[in-house]
Every structure is written in structure tokens, then in C-alpha cells.
Amino acid sequence: MKENEGQSSVVRRFLASMAEKGKHVFKLEDAIPYWSSPHMARKALSRLERRGWLKRLERGLYLIVPLDAGPSGQWSEDPLVIAAQLAPEGAVAYWTALHYWGMTEQIPRTIIVQTIHRRYKSRDTILGVRYHFIVVVERKLFGVITSVRDGLPIRITDREKTLIDALDRPDLCGGIAQVIETLESPEPMDWEKVDAYMDLMNSGAVYKRMGYLVEELDISIPDQQRWLTNWKKRITKGIALLEPGRKKTGPIKSPWRVRINIRAMEDSS
After folding, report:
1. Peptide bond into 251 cis (omega under 30)
2. Are 117 and 150 contained in the same domain?
3. Rounded distance, CA 187 to CA 73, Å?
């Protein structure tokens, strides 16, 4: 009896400490100091999970279920907060970031996270939400800011990096039509920063798609001709598909060296 009471006291202290720190999501390492060993901490957390007090998100990562979740435990932490814990060195990106910044009306069904570390599973479903982890080389993980959701920090690509990522991987952002919607969005964009980010990305395809779309659609940006002239100087030799993953047919738009492989843009060329 005393042992059970002692364990209950430890559990109360642990949960109170997590609440005081605002940690709805925590790691096994956070719990170990409250028990005598990692083994005892795992056993305690396993009991709390069986009782419905915790949900295990993945190995070594847990979510505290609030009291107002009800007996069925039907409650979920903000998916962006969970994403931040699943890949703390990464950033919410691509279509998810486009929606976060109000640059698309489409609501993505999957939370997309950019990370430099390969995971056991690149796709996962946690508490009914789908997550997709995209591994990038370290030099491509930049332009990240820290925002706050429900009092907790999340890392997300800023507006300008989100645009560059969309040009680099249209397939992860709803396709080239979504990229066009982003370029035509009334949301403010720092074009000096966009240009600097294009340099950091160092992708010929990004220059080609950006230059072609801005010129062909006459996207209204400050000093448009100056940017177009600069981008033309950085074009590489290869041919880039306007819509990656689609057929490799269609006219090549000079001087941008972009193959227009979608019907809507073929008709406008």
C-alpha cells in the first residue's frame, strides 16, 4: 500500500512539473529523474498510458492527455506542436507552411516536415493525423523561424523560404498551380530575401521555374526586370520540367530552359 502511495506521489509530482513547464509533449528523458532508473520510468509511463493519462506518439515520446478529454480520450494536441517534437531540429514546411502563412486556401491533409535526419518511417499517422518527413541536405534547411502555438514553440519555414521550397518541390505543395497561387498571393514578400534564398538553395530548376512564371504571368513584384535579368544570368544548362513528376514532353521555353509539360501553361505560351 505504501509503495502504491509512493508511486502515486511521484506520478503527481511528475505531471505537475510537466504542467508547470507547459510540456504537453515530453520525452522519456524528461521522466527518468522522477524514478530510480530508466527501466522504472518506462514501466511508470506504460501504466499511465494504459490508464489513459498518456498517449505514446512514438518510441520515447509521449503526450499528456488533459482531464477534459473525457473517458474516451478523444483529444489531440495541435498537430504542429506534435510535429515540432517529432523533429525538433526540423521545420514545418511545404504545403503545410503555405497554409500556415495564408498563401493557399487549400487545407493540406498531411503535416509535412522538413528534416535533416532520416527516420525509421518517413510517413506516420499519429492520433489520426498524417505526417510526412522530407529529408533534405543540411544546406537546404534555412529560413526557419520559431513561432508559438498554445504557448509552445514550433519551427516553421518563413514566407520566403516556403515559396522557394514550393518552386524546388512543387509536388509537395499541391503542384505548379499552387505555386502560381502563391506567387499571385497578396501576402507580403521580401524579394531581396527571396533572391538571397535562391542563392542559398543553389538550384538551377528553382531559377528556371521562378523566372519563367514571373515573366510569363507578369507577376507584379518590385523591380521585376532587375530580378529577371539577374535570374537569367544564373540559369544552368539542363532542362527543368515545369511540373516535376509529369510527362517529359511539351515545348521548351527559351531563355528559361523550362519544359512546359502541363496543358494550361502550354496554351498560354
Report:
1. no
2. yes
3. 39
Do 36 and 88 belong together in one domain?
Answer: no
CA distance 87 to 117: 8
C-alpha cell at 26: 515530453
Q: Rounded distance, CA 250 to CA 90, Å? A: 37
| Range(s) of the domain holding residue 48 | 2-69
Q: Determine the angle formed by the axes of helices 224-232 and 204-216, rounding to 10 degrees.
A: 140
Backbone dihedral angles phi then psi of residue 19, each to the nearest 5 degrees: -65, -40
Alpha helices in the chain (DSSP H): 2-20, 28-31, 38-50, 79-86, 94-100, 159-168, 176-183, 191-201, 204-216, 224-232, 263-268
| pLDDT average, residue stretch 191-199 | 97
Give the tens place of pLDDT for each residue, 219-244.
999 999 999 999 999 999 999 999 99
Radius of gyration from C-alpha coordinates of the chain: 23
Name the helix (H) or strand (E) containing 62.
Answer: strand 61-64
Let me know whether 222 and 167 are in one domain. Answer: no
